[in-house]
Amino acid sequence: MSERVIKVGLCGFGVVGQGVFNYLRSRQDLLSDRIGARLEVSRIAVRDTKKKRDFDYDESMLTTDPLSIATDPEVDVVCELMGGTGVALDVSIAALEAGKILVTANKALLCDHGEAVFAAAKRGGGQLFFEASVAGGIPVIKALKDSLVVNRFSSIYGILNGTSNYILTRMTNEGATYQEILTEAKALGYAEADESLDVDGIDAAHKAVVLAYLAHGRWVPFKDLLVEGVSEVTQDDIQFAKDNGYAVKLLAVIDVAHASGKLYISILPTLVSKKTSLGSVDGVFNAVSIHGDVVGETVYIGPGAGRDATASSVIADIVDGAKLLVNGGAETFVDPAPRGGDAIELAEPEEIESRYYVRLQVLDKPGVMAEVASLLASHKVSLASVTQKEVGEGAESATLIVTTHMTNEKAILDSVKSLAESPSVTAKPFCMPISGIEK
Ligand code: NAP
Ligand code: HSE
What we know:
Distance between the termini: 55 Å
Shape: elongated
CATH class of the largest domain: Alpha Beta
Helix content: 25-40%
CATH topology of the largest domain: Rossmann fold
Bound molecules: NADP nicotinamide-adenine-dinucleotide phosphate, L-homoserine
Number of domains: 3
Strand content: 15-25%
Strand order of the largest sheet: 3-2-1-4-5-6
CATH superfamily of the largest domain: NAD(P)-binding Rossmann-like Domain
Number of strands: 17
Structural class: alpha/beta
Largest sheet: 6 strands, parallel
Radius of gyration: 24 Å
């Protein structure tokens, strides 16, 4: 009996698309043994058909019209690997409405249009897979939606952006500036086409929204998240972290407040103890720590970006989709939205407690330290430590680093705003939480 052929259409043939193409071809026999069907890339959509690619391929497969792949009756599995939320949304909706398997690595799309994309799948009978959208090669989507299905999730902490972690690690180990390292992260295929998504924390926020949906069944609007990236982290912050047993990490926090049961999501540069599992995750690696009330804490660590790691997750999804086609039946997606129940409420900044680190550039004159302390006190923020780097005779300004005792997010944001307005503060203050994670 001849083997069934499952046709795969690649919409996007860049870093990820070419990785998927490469391994679908080089591991074709292995995958065919494991699935009982042959996976064949039959069509590829790109913007520029003349661009040189890294692998040989049959140019007759090329099109500049990804929608034609999404609706092609000959294509069984559509991979949306273009990025963005314009054409990618049209392609995803069209493929799902046509009842196809859709595999996407696009977290921006899910964050902004998750509800519409899931609705299209329901309408058209299509199946949606998105393992590569969060944490690159780490199978964290599968863990959260399937393996941990019996749990309620009190907290999820994540290092979710490979580019940022790569930058912070090299700033720590080599003392280089973030711009120098960003150029290399781009060349390695880690960064988004628009790298501001990485360095401004937006990409990590997109991923946090996807994880929060799977954990709590609510698509939290991006505007309700507190989001900052790594672009303002300096060697002063890195040095403070080193001297005090911390690492600076871009940390996503998806927390349910114990007392109120409300949900809080932030993505912020954060001082994380080096003794914790997340504090020692370096380079392009991502890590996700999930606290489930039945299982306890589980931690997932692995490469969070790059061609091969991402292709590994995309191909896992293609195989899951192909197995449905071979064996019949539909993906048993457990809808995380509470049935008939109210959506989880979002916490107010007053309800979020942490210690904080604040770096200030201040006039080097008598009385400034007292002024800073009194301004913080006016917001009921109490100092835990104050460090001023020694400055030369005649210097006009000095770097002042303060840490606080436990306070709340509103108090610290108000304090930083007041500090920024003070005539004694000469540059925009930089502030980050000091994580309470202990393990
Ligand atoms: P990329 O290298 O920029 O590749 C994008 C591909 O899509 C290119 O081949 C481009 O064509 C094609 N494309 C874009 N718009 C198109 C359009 N309107 N019509 C036809 N083709 C179009 O991006 P990438 O790094 O592979 O990322 C792809 C997706 O995977 C994004 O959603 C990204 O967030 C996600 N992702 C990336 C990584 C990673 O490590 N890079 C990891 C996880 C998830 P041309 O080549 O002709 O320009
Ligand atoms: N630009 C992303 C990152 C790719 O650096 O994490 C993986 O989603």
